[in-house]
Inverse folding.
């Protein structure tokens, strides 16, 4: 299969502009600059490209919400705050092939009429940030960025902004708040960023992987793109596989590849050939699936039908013998640690949930704790300001759904079911 | 209008209205923590979640506007359970130390849990604790974050309303704590609004700490008696001591906000230095006496003085009833028009200011003024003198995008929300506005053809006026063009026009020119004594009677009385609540003059330098011990209510003045004990007060509406003339020779006159007298903020602490008029408020 996103990744010094160009890069932007911006938006709409950050919102539709008024300042923000545990896909693009992202951003900016774009990059990605900055410098030198790029009358400035280590800043409005220098907490919607985003101006926020698809769509057309994978969520997907498989890593595959194929064909199967116990299919916010579910195709709609989500397609594979109470505890601890503190149910609820799980995990569980956890889930879910709290609940509900007996055992016997 | 349903009932409501407001208007109870009408909605506490039929998730009603066709449920089982679960969450990390918490009994969390919450707890884990012991954030603020519900109202009020922004949220998740950076002492206004908005016992007032439980307090609705903003307060006492003054959400123009003075200046009432017994001079020495002796001495003392040689001065802090009766006493039985209420300003200055700010046209609401496209603040150090007006301007201008222009010689907090700041030389408001008037009247020369003031500034010319004011012509043009692009203009004009009365004529011309150009102009006078406007309207003015009617014979103003007295020609004087020996421009002159008056009666709450010269001292009471009404700067008449009995043998001021009135009228016409009777007479005799509605004042308003226009005074047909005032300030400076800095004065943020100096709490905010200059000037002199400097003028020299102020004009020095140890008036020539001084490191 032809790769779109990781096509250059193993080529030597792919991060250099000259090599990117030699590998066929910066053609699409030249093509784009000769097109009407609306035509580009229509192409992306036609391609059915869906956002790769997790929610799967159609990218072209998102762009089309941007007002056409040419006097309005508009912005593009690239969400590179890859913080979902298990996810490491965007990082590869930025580390190895930063110009792919830049080209995607240039086309997007041109399409939506933004003269300024920001890459909001996760604070820990120091290397990625330096690669991007170097790539941006190169692009400026070549006249690919700055005034009248590629000799057109379109001017564009791109900046890299490093986050300060908060998971919440991956939420788009918290990202904007942080980018403006404020406290990283989500904003109320409406107004949606497309109308009042960064500095209250129309703003598009797209994930790195989403933007990485744009040059290929421009080059080869929406029909070509739509032909890859299922029609309603086409394209390829970088699956970041971690956990108990033989060959963890990044795999760019067409959408809709079943989990089984990913784990057993591409990743070489389970480590030590142990039986598979559970799989988290899209970052820890996505409820886990069990062995019986692994023939599910990895696309947005099929995963949703299974009660979970494709999310960032960060696949975490767990073998038989993994303690699900510990998994739930560690996941919950992450969410309560990363809760921004703004709304009550997330701030207090995730923290309470973690305290209970901590107790159970450490052999201090009490009768009724499972019911308590279920009740907490109900009280948090759907009542938080942003989806962070929902993520915490979904993760825990997934574990409780499939492995409730492990929790009960833990509470009754003060130890792990799986270790005994 | 849109059609919605709330709990099944079909309604038509305004489009864009919040679901919360729509539901509350219908009487549905939706609890909230983070919502406050005046603050930016954040929708974070999730208490107000409601169900919208057809939507999967519950929605926060405090940030969700109604949409056509919405069917809203505020009490569905899901909503009820969500509410209770939020409270359960809030209680998980709440300290639950209600028995020792100051907020116990008036805590919103307590009330809500009682009403909506789970009555048993399931959280059995160790709680997160932010810190151990409570910590102090300011002389008046103590903090216990373990009780916090994270509504962040404190942070928002601090930045959005007060504009100091010293509070912020630190940390994330359960570690989030609303405090100052590094939890250090706050460099703030000490206004305590963070305490007031706090729904729980997280921000607490330090002076009130552990003094009472809320249910042991007795309270009365009152008005803050410092500046003339007219903020409504509730004063509360326990065991005879006033222990708290607070504002109420949705009550009065201030709603829940107050400044430091209003919230913490109440303790003057409890002072041990209060006068508690009448005193009469016997054999040259003041001795405690009975009221009979005191009234007897007054009967004798005033009888023997001729009307033209009798004078009265009453403080603009007294109530309308007291001032009305005081003026009536002089202008009636004592047959003298020598009555004044403005010791610091001349009667002409008062008349000019009242004319320029259209006071005769009746009361004008600050909210109407702010309902303008551009607002011009001039002649006032608004952020320091009338802090709550500063809050209102900041809040409304930020919310509605009002263009604010500020002309001042000193920087102020409000500058941060101004689109234009003009920095003029001190005392040149007249020149600045004169130039603006000339620019405005450019197209309307016919209107001003016969206007003497206009012709006089025209003869001077724009460039000369601009040069005098130190503001460039282009800046003045920018100001005028911002007026030009607005259909409605609000002007907030302050006491500098009283200090430098030559400015009033220009102000009047600007207003006239704007009106001539078809603009709606709303002028609000801002004053620094709570009942200054009321005092003028009650006729405590030598040339004007009630409601600005002109007196047939012009009496002596206070300066005139002092001049007469110094010549030994004043037989008697009755001074109520004022201390001219320290507050009159030239204290020594006043002391000598009063010393030469045959018979001096001083009625006050404290022993003052002036009282020490009296033949009879009458102990009056403070606002907490009497009833009455005050008219604020807008013309809003509001009542105060007694909470405490007079201390010792002191009597209510109205009772004292009524008794004296009855003595000289020879009748028992005036009821001695009741203020309501006098107000009824005011309604009858003062036409502008006839329709004033007092009943509204103590009622809680509907949400988002703080404006009771029914309590504004009406307009009168009186016409005031613009008195000719010869320029005094410029000549004073010229005779001083320029020595580096021009010294001006006004009120300090924490003080209002000298009365507030009696407050121990307010006294704790500043240590010693301060001289303020701009940051740039301090750099130039090589002096840093906090150093001791000597300020030397040609008449007086003093040592003070230097503070820098951001945004002040170069060459301007400021010393507040509130310090006992450095009486700023000593720098000035008598009757003036500007002087040249040198500043050097001591």
């Amino acid at each position: 299969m032809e790769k779109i996103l990781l096509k250059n990744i193993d080529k030597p010094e792919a991060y250099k502009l000259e090599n990117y160009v030699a590998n066929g890069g910066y053609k699409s932007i030249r093509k784009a600059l000769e097109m009407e911006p609306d035509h580009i938006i229509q192409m992306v709409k036609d391609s059915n490209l869906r956002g790769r950050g997790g929610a799967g919102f159609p990218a072209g539709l998102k762009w089309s919400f941007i007002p056409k008024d040419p006097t309005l300042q508009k912005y593009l923000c690239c969400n590179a705050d890859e913080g979902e545990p298990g996810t490491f896909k965007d990082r590869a693009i930025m580390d190895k092939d930063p110009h792919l992202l830049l080209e995607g951003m240039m086309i997007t900016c041109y399409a939506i009429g933004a003269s300024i774009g920001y890459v909001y990059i996760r604070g820990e990605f120091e290397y990625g940030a330096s690669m991007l900055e170097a790539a941006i410098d190169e692009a400026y030198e070549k006249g690919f960025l700055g005034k009248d790029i590629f000799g057109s009358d379109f001017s564009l400035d791109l900046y890299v902004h490093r986050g300060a280590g908060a998971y919440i800043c991956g939420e788009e409005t918290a990202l904007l708040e942080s980018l403006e220098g404020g406290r990283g907490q989500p904003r109320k919607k409406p107004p949606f960023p497309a109308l009042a985003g960064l500095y209250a101006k129309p703003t598009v926020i797209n994930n790195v992987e989403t933007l990485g698809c744009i040059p290929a769509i421009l080059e080869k057309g929406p029909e070509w793109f739509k032909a890859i994978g299922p029609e309603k969520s086409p394209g390829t997907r970088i699956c970041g596989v971690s956990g108990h498989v033989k060959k963890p890593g990044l795999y760019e595959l067409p959408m809709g590849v079943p989990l089984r194929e990913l784990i057993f064909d591409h990743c070489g199967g389970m480590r030590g050939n142990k039986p598979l116990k559970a799989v988290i299919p899209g970052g820890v916010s996505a409820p886990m699936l069990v062995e019986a579910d692994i023939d599910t195709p990895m696309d947005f709609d099929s995963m949703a039908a299974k009660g979970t989500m494709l999310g960032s397609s960060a696949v975490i594979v767990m073998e038989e013998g993994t303690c699900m109470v510990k998994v739930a505890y560690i996941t919950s601890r992450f969410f309560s640690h990363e809760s921004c503190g703004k709304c009550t149910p997330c701030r207090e609820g995730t923290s309470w949930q973690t305290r209970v799980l901590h107790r159970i995990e450490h052999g201090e569980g009490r009768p009724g704790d499972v019911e308590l956890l279920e009740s907490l889930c109900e009280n948090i879910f759907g009542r938080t300001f942003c989806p962070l709290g929902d993520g915490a609940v979904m993760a825990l509900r997934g574990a409780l759904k499939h492995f409730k007996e492990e929790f009960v055992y833990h509470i009754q016997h003060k130890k792990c079911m799986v270790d005994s | 209008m849109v059609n919605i349903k709330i709990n099944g009932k079909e309604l038509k409501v305004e489009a864009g209205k919040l679901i919360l407001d729509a539901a509350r208007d219908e009487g549905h109870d939706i609890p909230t923590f983070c919502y406050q009408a005046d603050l930016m909605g954040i929708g974070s506490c999730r208490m107000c979640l409601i169900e919208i039929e057809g939507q999967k998730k519950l929605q926060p009603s405090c940030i969700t506007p109604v949409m056509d066709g919405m069917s809203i449920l505020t009490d569905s089982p899901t909503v009820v359970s969500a509410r209770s679960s939020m409270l359960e969450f809030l209680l998980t990390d709440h300290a639950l130390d209600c028995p020792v918490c100051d907020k116990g009994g008036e805590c919103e969390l307590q009330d809500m849990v009682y009403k909506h919450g789970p009555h048993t707890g399931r959280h059995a884990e160790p709680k997160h604790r932010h810190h151990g012991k409570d910590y102090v954030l300011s002389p008046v603020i103590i903090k216990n974050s373990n009780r916090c519900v994270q509504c962040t109202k404190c942070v928002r009020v601090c930045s959005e309303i007060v504009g100091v922004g010293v509070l912020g949220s630190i940390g994330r998740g359960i570690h989030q704590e609303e405090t100052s950076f590094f939890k250090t002492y706050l460099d703030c206004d000490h206004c305590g609004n963070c305490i007031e908005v706090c729904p729980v016992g997280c921000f607490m007032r330090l002076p009130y700490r552990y003094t009472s439980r809320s249910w042991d307090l007795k309270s009365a609705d009152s008005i803050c008696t410092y500046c003339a903003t007219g903020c409504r307060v509730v004063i509360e006492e326990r065991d005879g001591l006033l222990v708290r003054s607070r504002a109420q959400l949705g009550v009065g123009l201030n709603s829940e906000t107050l400044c430091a003075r209003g919230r913490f200046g109440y303790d003057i009432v409890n002072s041990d230095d209060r006068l508690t017994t009448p005193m009469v001079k016997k054999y040259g020495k003041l001795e405690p006496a009975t009221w009979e002796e005191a009234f007897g001495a007054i009967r004798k003392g005033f009888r023997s003085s001729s009307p033209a040689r009798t004078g009265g001065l009453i403080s603009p802090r007294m109530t309308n009833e007291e001032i009305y009766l005081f003026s009536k006493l002089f202008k009636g039985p004592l047959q003298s028009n020598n009555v004044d209420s403005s010791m610091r300003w001349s009667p002409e200055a008062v008349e000019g200011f009242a004319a320029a700010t259209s006071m005769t046209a009746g009361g004008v609401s600050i909210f109407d003024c702010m309902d303008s496209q551009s607002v011009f603040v001039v002649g006032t150090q608004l952020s320091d003198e009338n802090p709550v007006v500063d809050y209102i301007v900041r809040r409304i201008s930020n919310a509605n995008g009002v263009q604010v222009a500020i002309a001042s010689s000193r920087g102020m907090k409000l500058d941060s929300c101004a689109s234009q700041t003009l920095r003029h030389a001190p005392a040149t408001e007249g020149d600045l506005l004169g130039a603006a008037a000339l620019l405005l009247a450019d197209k309307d020369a016919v209107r001003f053809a016969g206007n003497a003031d206009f012709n006089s500034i025209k003869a001077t010319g724009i460039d000369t006026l601009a040069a005098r004011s130190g503001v460039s012509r282009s800046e003045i043009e920018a100001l005028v063009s911002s007026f030009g692009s607005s259909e409605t203009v609000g002007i907030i004009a302050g006491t500098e026009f009283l200090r430098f009365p030559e400015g009033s004529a220009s102000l009047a011309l600007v207003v006239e020119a704007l009106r001539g150009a078809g603009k709606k102009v709303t002028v609000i006078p801002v004053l620094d004594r709570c009942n200054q406007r009321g005092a003028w309207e009650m006729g405590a003015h030598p040339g004007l009677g009630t409601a600005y009617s002109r007196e047939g014979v012009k009496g002596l103003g206070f300066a005139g009385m002092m001049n007469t007295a110094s010549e030994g020609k004043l037989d008697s004087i009755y001074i109520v609540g004022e201390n001219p020996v320290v507050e009159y421009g030239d204290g020594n002159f006043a002391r000598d003059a009063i010393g030469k008056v045959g018979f001096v009666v001083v009625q006050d709450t404290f022993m003052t330098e002036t009282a020490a010269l009296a033949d009879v001292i009458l102990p009056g009471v403070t606002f907490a011990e009497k009833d009455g009404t005050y008219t604020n700067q807008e013309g809003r008449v509001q009542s105060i209510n007694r909470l405490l009995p007079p201390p010792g043998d002191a009597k209510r001021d109205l009772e004292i003045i009524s008794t004296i009135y009855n003595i000289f009228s020879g009748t028992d016409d005036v009821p001695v004990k009741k203020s309501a009777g006098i107000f009824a007479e005011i309604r009858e005799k003062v036409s502008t007060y006839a329709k004033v509605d007092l009943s509204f004042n103590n009622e809680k308003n509907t949400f988002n509406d703080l404006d009771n226009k029914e309590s504004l005074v009406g307009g009168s047909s009186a016409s005031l003339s613009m008195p000719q005032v010869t320029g005094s300030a410029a000549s004073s400076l010229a005779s001083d020779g320029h020595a580096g800095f021009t010294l001006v004065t006004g009120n300090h943020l924490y003080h209002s006159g000298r009365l507030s100096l009696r407050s121990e709490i307010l006294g704790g905010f500043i240590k010693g007298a301060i001289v303020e200059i701009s940051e740039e000037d301090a750099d130039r002199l090589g002096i840093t903020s906090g150093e001791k400097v000597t300020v030397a003028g040609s008449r007086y020299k003093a040592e003070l602490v230097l503070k820098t102020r951001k945004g002040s004009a170069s060459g301007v020095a400021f010393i507040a008029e509130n310090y006992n140890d450095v009486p700023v008036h000593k720098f000035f020539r008598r009757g003036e408020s500007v002087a040249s001084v040198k500043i050097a490191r001591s």
In short: The radius of gyration of chain A is 22 Å. Chain A has a mean pLDDT of 95. The domain at 236-319 of chain A is CATH 3.10.20.600 (Ubiquitin-like (UB roll)).
